[in-house]
Amino acid sequence: MSRPVIRASNSNKHPGKIVLEANRVQRSKAEVVAEKNHKQAEKVAKTAATDQKHLRIAAIEDSMAIQQRLEATGPQKPIRPRPRTKLVSDGGYMPRVEQTSKYNLDYASEIIII
């Protein structure tokens, strides 16, 4: 088949296109696949590194928020642990409150501290 005839007005429109087509590099399928795999591996490594950076920054921000909350509220008031009484039923009609006093020794066996 013969080549189409180029119009005279279009003959000098893109003179550098011939040079670009002559310098085109032909690669085999194996080279193309290897390059794609390499680019994909680089992309995965970059996203993993970015995720690690985001996690590190989030941990720093969390610790800063805790520190700021502690500074805003001040130190906590110490709490004195106290024994608590509990209602105990003897099987009768009225429940009674356990006695934690040292003077009521008859109830000492029934003391339950929560």
Which descriptors apply to this entry?
114 residues; mainly alpha; 2 domains; 2 helices; rod-shaped
Description:
By secondary structure, the protein is mainly alpha-helical. It is built from two helices and two strands; from the N terminus they run H-H-E-E. A two-stranded antiparallel sheet has the order 1-2. The longest helix has 45 residues, at 29-73. It starts with 16 loop residues before the first helix and ends in a 17-residue tail after the last strand.
Given helix and strand content, the structural type is mainly alpha
Beta-strand percentage?
Answer: under 5%
Name the shape in a single word: rod-shaped
Report strand order across the widest sheet: 1-2
Order of helices and strands: HHEE
Q: Based on DSSP secondary structure assignment, what is the total number of beta strands?
A: 2
Describe this structure in a few short sentences:
The chain has 114 residues and is mainly alpha-helical. It has 2 domains: 15-77; 80-114, no CATH class.
Layout of helices and strands:
Elements (H helix, E strand, L loop, with lengths): L16 H6 L6 H45 L13 E2 L7 E2 L17
Antiparallel strand pairs: 1-2
